[in-house]
Write a structure and sequence with these properties.
globular; single chain; Helix Hairpins; phosphoprotein; mainly alpha; HTH_DNAJC9; 256 residues
Length: 256
């Protein structure tokens, strides 16, 4: 599958500008701002466990799309041909999380809360719900996995939103949505409650509260107690927040 085909699968569109909500005449500043905004929606550090795999794929694709549009020569080739080099070994091996951190300040709890406050109830959320509903053929579980900031706690609100779009004729009434059983809803809620309880138990074991300080404490505790497995939520936090100072300085110098 080519990169643009992958974009079509992940975002429902294969035009790099439209993925960032932009047009071909966008300035470099607008492209960077668009990349930052869209990537926050799928940043692996702020999505639920059920959303993480897809969000990571989207996050990586966004990084690659931005790397094309932010390079003057590569952007010119893309503008002229509509094609992206799928055989570039540098692009295939690049760590897109590190790439993101070179461009933007570290993501904090305050950033996440600010984004969610601005996103929930916005026109952008409505469009994302509409797209997710169609992409999932009306499956509410799939919709909750795709829409940023969505969870079983917001299910009733999002269900009402979808129903309103159906009533107004903006969305079709799909069987997976209209005929979903109470048992299926209850099972989804039980799974979410189990995940939340597990996370809360882990916090209690580590003696953590809320805030960035707790994130740092969680990282330190995890460093002492973890096994060999990598890729967990705690290890991702460690990779972001607990880098040696020298490496951080080197990265900043490199980005200049």
């Amino acid at each position: 599958m080519s990169f643009l085909e992958k974009c079509k699968e992940l975002f429902g569109k294969d035009d790099l500008y439209s993925i960032f909500g932009l047009t071909k005449d966008a300035s470099e500043k607008q492209i960077k701002k668009g990349y930052h905004h869209v990537s926050l929606k799928v940043h692996p550090d702020r999505v639920s466990a059920s959303q993480k795999e897809r969000a990571t794929e989207q996050f990586q694709a966004l990084g690659r799309a931005y790397s094309v549009l932010s390079d003057r020569d590569r952007r010119a080739v893309y503008d002229e041909t509509g094609c992206v080099d799928d055989d570039d070994p540098v692009e295939q091996e690049r760590d897109w999380a590190d790439y993101w951190r070179l461009l933007f300040k570290p993501l904090t709890i305050q950033d996440i809360e600010k984004f969610e406050k601005e996103y929930v109830g916005s026109a952008e959320e409505v469009e994302d719900v509409r797209a997710a509903y169609l992409a999932c053929d009306g499956d509410m579980g799939g919709l909750l996995d795709r829409v940023p900031c969505a969870s079983v706690d917001s299910e009733d609100r999002l269900r009402q939103l979808v129903q309103g779009l159906i009533d107004s004729g903006e969305l079709p009434a799909l069987p997976a949505f209209t005929n979903e059983t109470k048992a299926k809803r209850a099972a989804r809620k039980r799974r979410a409650m189990a995940e939340a309880a597990e996370a809360e138990e882990e916090k209690k074991k580590l003696g953590l509260g809320d805030g960035d300080g707790s994130l740092q404490a969680m990282i330190m505790a995890r460093q002492e107690a973890r096994g060999a497995a990598m890729g967990s939520f705690f290890d991702q936090l460690e990779a972001k927040y607990a880098k040696p100072e020298k490496k951080t300085k080197a990265r900043k110098q490199k980005s200049k």
